[in-house]
Amino acid sequence: MTLNPTVPSRSSGRRLVAVPALLAALALTAACSNSSGGSGGGGGAAAPSLSGDCAKYQPYAGHSGTTVTVFASILSPESDNLEKSWAEFAKCTGIKISYEGSNDFESQLPVRVAGGNAPDFAIIPQPGLLAQMVKSGKVVKPPAQTVANQEKWSPIWKTYGSVNGTFYAAPMSANMKSLVWYSPKAFKTAGYEVPKTWADLTALSDRIAKAGGAKPWCGGIASGTATGWPATDWLEEVVLGTYGGDVYDQWVGHQVKFSDEKITTAMKTVAGWMQNPAWVNGGYGDVKSIATTTFQDAGAPVLTGKCAMLQQASFYEAQWPKGTKVGPDGDVFAFHLPAVNPAIPNPVEGGGEFLAAFSGRPEVQAVQNYLSSADWASSRVRTATGWVSANQGVDKSLYTDPIDRLSADALTDPTATFRFDGSDLMPAAVGAGQEWKSLTAWFAEGQSIQKTAADIDAAWPQ
Amino acid sequence: MSARHGKPTRAMSAPHANPVRKAFSRPLASVFVIAVTVLWTIPTLGLLVTSLRPKQDVTSNGWWNALLHPDLGLGNYHTVLFEGGSGVSTGLMPFLVNSLAISVPATLFPLVLAAMAAYGLAWVRFRGSDTVFFAVFALQVVPIQMALIPLLRLFSGGAHLGSLTLIPAVDLKGSYAPVWLAHTMFALPLAVFLLHNFIAQLPRDLMEAAVVDGASHFKIFRSIVLPLCTPALASFAIFQFLWVWNDLLVALTFAGGTPEVAPMTVRLAQLSGSFGGRWELLTAGAFLSIIVPLIVFFSLQRYFVRGLLAGSVKG
């Protein structure tokens, strides 16, 4: 072979060059740039009237020939369904929606915005990141129609799309995290009933543990650089289900600290559940194996009968192997995790994605209005499964997937105590950093609750 | 015109060469080298085998199982090339074209600019030429990560001093130009340094003879310097091409991920999907992206080793 091991490889750090060279390079390539000009066409003219199938898009007409860019973290094949869901809108109105997905979205978006190269839209899954973007001053407030469309969502969603009381980003989708996956077949064979209360749940877990054969719970929190996030969900669900929305909000805002007795008590509840040696980790080993099992693999023992239940979000449905029947009488299904404290009505922890605009051009506002409407939400639900909107205007019979339907029912339930995933609301240094690390240490090394809580509090930005 | 000598630096004197050569030609050393080569190649072989295996095999056991129970096919390659991992997405072809459209100009621009700059700094005497050369050389230490946002701002907003516009804002969004410019800028310091050292060591007599014959600087550069420094140019071209071809960070920041401008690397990073469900496609995609660099490397490799020594010993 010709490769010489002594070849000095070039380091990844590259070099900035002097301004004269920059000018020369600019001159060199000025002729080659094919920048897209003339995007203002169709703005002032009267909107053409759309007919036939296109008639329903009349309010958005008048911007034909324009392009709107969307940047998001959703990749193919999920993003294909997004693009399909607005394809008809794009065809009828003549607005081209150029979609770009990246798995470096969270790091790329701030770079592009700071560099003055912001996309027209960003689909932001973390309210914390939305707040950071608003702070940059580049996020444009939504038009009146988008604000009006927001009435179809429960009011709490509006607060998650707002920063300091000002509404900026309309939610596009919602997902439900408070689910427990189980095997209806196995439950039926063993004569187990789906638990309705936390007491039922612990009694059932004890029963399964005593029966031998299977352990009641399995779990996995390994997820590459995001290892630990499933454990934050467990803690959030217990906090929400024990104390309700007010304490949860204070905890997320750090008025109630991790080392507060309320939160350490919740951590003890989690320890008695997911760190109970008699209950976990079905199919994988002891408590510590939770830290080394990936969240994708965690549910596999539910299918082989080595584990009875897995607490995971609705999007875990995509992880079951091909051919697994999901449904009330199928191979796997899910039930709503009951509240630890029966006095808390129907706690639902979930997540969602928000559409933030970085431009106020008329075609951008037209797209923003459309994507916040129940029409678009219905169109997306019709396109493919695995997408839930908490928009009250979506006909529930459109949901063909039982998990989607279950999630939609819970998310649109007016009596439910809905709260957004707390680690997505906390500052990134905590919610996407120290909390992951400390909870992982809690599971992997058996670190004490006091130290775990103190470490997370210490990382909170002042 | 006054020319000046490049400093002769002899890295190794002749008597050392023989024992080293002897040591490397011993059978034991050969066995060692072969063993290292085989070890070095195993991960690549694993990658190749994995890329040929169907999805259920990839997810259930290691690639070495395929050596005992071969069940290989080109299914992954077909998916990557023509389906792009899912229904409506385009295959890899547009991204391959983008990669070429980015890499070729981003290799040629710094090569041309740096060769001219190196000649100017080495053979044209002017006040402060040493300082300029040192400044260019020193700019190598600026990390690319620090320069990304300022550069992006420069492209989108221009540069202003008070109300005075130094550099106008250029609307390069959605084109290859920002990527070319960024790569050119980041490449120039090393390129100028490398070529300067090579060009400075060309025999002074040649230049003087040319001046006596009435040649201009451009004539000397074109007819004497360029042909003589082909090895250095070729080796830098390989470096730069491979760097640009494999680059993800600059492309992602300056071009974005739309099929109109994104290169292969950006597409590869997205191949496995939001939840990492299709990672068997990554291996096939990776192999497809290796092909072009291999062609470039093998076609220019005879210059490569010669060029590596560019500037280190007096030729």
Quick structural overview:
The complex is a heterodimer of chains A (462) and B (315). Chain A is an alpha/beta fold and 462 residues long. Chain A has helices spanning 19-30, 78-85, 87-93, 105-114, 127-135, 144-149, 155-160, 184-190, 198-211, 229-243, 245-252, 261-274, 289-292, 300-304, 362-371, 374-383, 402-412, 422-425, 428-444, 449-459; strands at residues 67-72, 96-101, 121-124, 162-163, 166-167, 170-176, 179-182, 215-218, 307-311, 333-336, 347-357, 417-420.
Order of helices and strands of chain B: HHHHHHHHEEHHHHHHH
Low-confidence stretches of chain A: 1-44
Tell the overall outline of chain B.
flat
Main sheet: strand order of chain B? 1-2
Distance between the ends of chain A? 57 Å
Total beta strand runs of chain A: 12
Distance between the termini of chain B: 23 Å
State the CATH superfamily name of the largest domain in chain B.
MetI-like
Kindly report the average pLDDT value of chain A: 86
CATH topology annotation of the largest domain in chain B: MetI-like fold
Helix content of chain B: 55-70%
Secondary-structure-derived class of chain B: mainly alpha
Number of strand elements of chain B:
2
Look at the structure and give the CATH class of the largest domain in chain A.
Answer: Alpha Beta
CATH architecture of the largest domain in chain B: Orthogonal Bundle
| CATH classification class of the largest domain in chain B | Mainly Alpha
Largest interface: which pair? Answer: A-B, 58 and 71 residues
